[in-house]
């Protein structure tokens, strides 16, 4: 019998494995994906970005996606047919292996959205069970243990910090960052150096960044990226107390009415095995965590584990917003700037938060973050970006070839990503489809998607601001795309924390209301997501929960 | 749209096809073209004509690559179906307009057909896929048997990221 069994080895699960194994507890981590390490990662666009090798083939494991058609009816389509992939990274360390590592903390007001900005019709907004102050020491801990690099500058929305500076200096910055700073100065904006979960040089028993130019979506061959495996699981293994089983898909959690007792999983050969532990931690990423609970029916939980009040899977959220771009052209730049524009590898590391909160018609509105970066280096995508003219007609022949050449050799796209709140609503949730099974015969998750109009209004407002900045920098062909399409990689909710079982799944420590020894530590607990990507918050909260669990072991409650 | 039944063509040797000495086992060497690759090969020539910059797609083994795509478990069946069916559809269009198959048309007629089908949803999708996989062939690491001698990368002064995959690291 293990002390702790963790399901899912990504950003939500790994801090628990790290802390508990270092405290001498026997930890088992079950991960459905493969065990890749630094030596398995290559900059292979075909494999990584075009054939999605880090996610399961949709013919074997898929989702059912429900969207509303123009008549207001809900239509369900299997992702095997649509190709709409909601998997992110099935591997030891989870999708944190593939992240770009843009790290932002949530702001104090993000923890109390309802009481600060008020109710919004049609949205299930609530305040968090904890405040920023409670999480701050853990954000700080992540900076030091996972490794966050950056530079603190004062700006109106800077979060209170217990450490004056980041423990690691910023990564190598592209000269364009200073062009960005100049444009911000002219427009009276605060240019914020974006913190990164990337080590600029060797530290924390890991190698520094090699500036490979292929970061987001790619595994890191040096270990510089602060993914859950390199930063945490490797150290958990060193204690000798942690066992990681890859290729192990957990499909059911048993309970005796008071406690979770056992988990069942299929190994690589399709054999069903089980594991027992004193305490269980679920961290399979928001959609799959809810799916596993819903598939774990028993006499006490007929509608799925922890789901007697129909709360599991509800209030699924994503990062709202979208992206935009502009093109910087050689002919608009002086010679010395032309030469540096095409410099590869260095990071832009800049964002704007001037409108994290803004006023409209005398009312305080929650805004968001805009991150700036270069277009992804993947060449096929970049070239395919040229195949339509501005009226959306396909072009080919000499014209297309000239455009591709121009795009690669005489210009570069500067892009931005907008992050704002995806308000939780009744029509955005995870269920299971009993009629659609994966390769093991287990019902797949059915995801109903809906976004609140408010999200698009705020996102569009932010995108316009970002476009102004691009214009100031001299970019042309500026455009943005803010839509209700969710980014599958930035997902949270489904097992909210809250006061009681009637309106939430977890308590303030992310322990199930209904069972004494089951915790959920991925982003499922989040009732709202803040206007930033989630991973720093997921890590921080998981470290916080690890402390609560350790205390229970210490107090002999378990 | 019904898929047109068309006559099997006699094997044609594509003179423009240049092959690597040692192509990988993803995209294999192709010397003899049968349908649907005859039509596809002609359409790709028309979409990416040589002599105006980009290396000739056949010089980076585009047909070998497309054949590999059709066998690739990671490429959804739906996409393969569209790729395959598109040749039937374009030949049907060519027959309707000129009572000939696409490869029998003059360059001008072929351009007219391309223009016409690009305005249809199926045509736009099919041509988009052909462009997509041609560019994949051009940009993929040479370990996959296309982008021979890195000609695609050289054309655009493109530098691949490091580390690059070896043959043993290929996903297939
Ligand atoms: C391309 C990309 C770029 C990103 N960029 C950023 C960024 O710049 N900044 C940022 O903050 N975030 C970013 N993210 C998001 C970030 O990766 C996630 O927020 C984070 O990893 C989520 O942590 P998690 O623990 O919930 O899930 P994961 O890290 O995905 O871990 C979940 C693990 O559980 C496993 N699992 C699922 N079901 C089961 C089961 N039944 N049994 C066993 N194991 C199971 C999965 O295989 C997976 O390994 C990015 C993600 C991607 C994919
Ligand atoms: S080496 Fe640097 S740029 Fe490359 S993947 Fe790792 S963190 Fe990203």
Brief digest:
The complex is a heterodimer of chains A (558) and B (172). Chain A has helices spanning 14-22, 45-50, 79-82, 113-117, 132-147, 176-187, 228-238, 286-295, 335-341, 379-384, 397-409, 453-472, 535-554; strands at residues 2-7, 27-30, 64-68, 74-78, 102-103, 192-193, 195-196, 242-245, 249-255, 260-266, 272-282, 314-329, 350-352, 357-360, 363-366, 368-374, 411-421, 429-437, 443-448, 476-482, 491-494, 518-520. Helix content of chain A is 25%, strand content 23%.
Describe this structure in words.
The complex is a heterodimer of chains A (558) and B (172). With 558 residues, chain A is α+β, with helices and mostly antiparallel strands. Chain A has helices at residues 14-22, 45-50, 79-82, 113-117, 132-147, 176-187, 228-238, 286-295, 335-341, 379-384, 397-409, 453-472, 535-554, and strands at residues 2-7, 27-30, 64-68, 74-78, 102-103, 192-193, 195-196, 242-245, 249-255, 260-266, 272-282, 314-329, 350-352, 357-360, 363-366, 368-374, 411-421, 429-437, 443-448, 476-482, 491-494, 518-520. In chain A, the strands form 5 sheets. In chain A, strands 1, 2, 8, 9, 10, 11 and 22 form a 7-stranded mixed β-sheet that branches. The two termini of chain A are 13 Å apart. The mean pLDDT of chain A is 97. With 172 residues, chain B is mostly helical. In chain B, 46% of the residues lie in helices and 2% in strands. In chain B, strands 1-2 form a two-stranded antiparallel sheet. The A-B interface holds A 40-47, 50-53, 57-59, 80-81, 83, 210, 212-214, 218, 221, 344, 377, 379-380, 383-384, 387, 393-394, 396-398, 400-402, 404-405, 408-409 and B 46-49, 52-54, 72-79, 114, 118-119, 124, 127-128, 131-132, 135-136, 138-141, 144, 153, 155-165, 169-172. The complex binds flavin-adenine dinucleotide (FAD) and iron/sulfur cluster.
